[in-house]
């Protein structure tokens, strides 16, 4: 939702894809109950049914995540005994420590 002060109009449309300082995301219940100041119009933009499903960006992000998870991880060193924990492998920011 955003206001167009010059036209005295409140505009309701789809959720924002990025933060805008003068736009507000409303849940469905509140967007249906919205009322504007006296003398103002409320313009409700119809949803595009094609935009309801996943976008190509969503599908590409999912494919990238699957590819990343499927990459083989080379085991790292086994930590020397004098260290407090024994690291056996690492994957990203996660480490596997031996319990011995």
Throw out a few tags for this protein:
two-stranded antiparallel ribbon; three-stranded mixed β-sheet; elongated; 2 helices; alpha+beta; 2 domains; 100 residues
Q: What is the first-to-last residue Cα distance?
A: 58 Å
The number of E-state strands comes to 5
Cα gyration radius (Å): 25 Å
Helix content range: 10-25%
- Helix/strand order: EEHEHEE
* Share in β-strands: 15-25%
Q: What's the arrangement of strands in the largest beta sheet?
A: 1-2-3
**Tally of contiguous helical segments:** 2
- Which structural category do the helix and sheet elements fall into? alpha+beta
Summarize model confidence as the mean pLDDT. Answer: 78
Question: What this model shows, in words?
Answer:
- This protein folds into 2 domains: 2-51, no CATH class; 56-97, no CATH class.
- Helix content is 21%, strand content 20%.
- It has helices spanning 28-33, 56-70; strands spanning 2-4, 9-12, 41-44, 87-91, 94-97.
- The chain has a 3-stranded mixed beta sheet with strand order 1-2-3, with no helix packed on it. It has a two-stranded antiparallel sheet with strand order 4-5.
- The chain is elongated.
- The N and C termini lie far apart (58 Å).
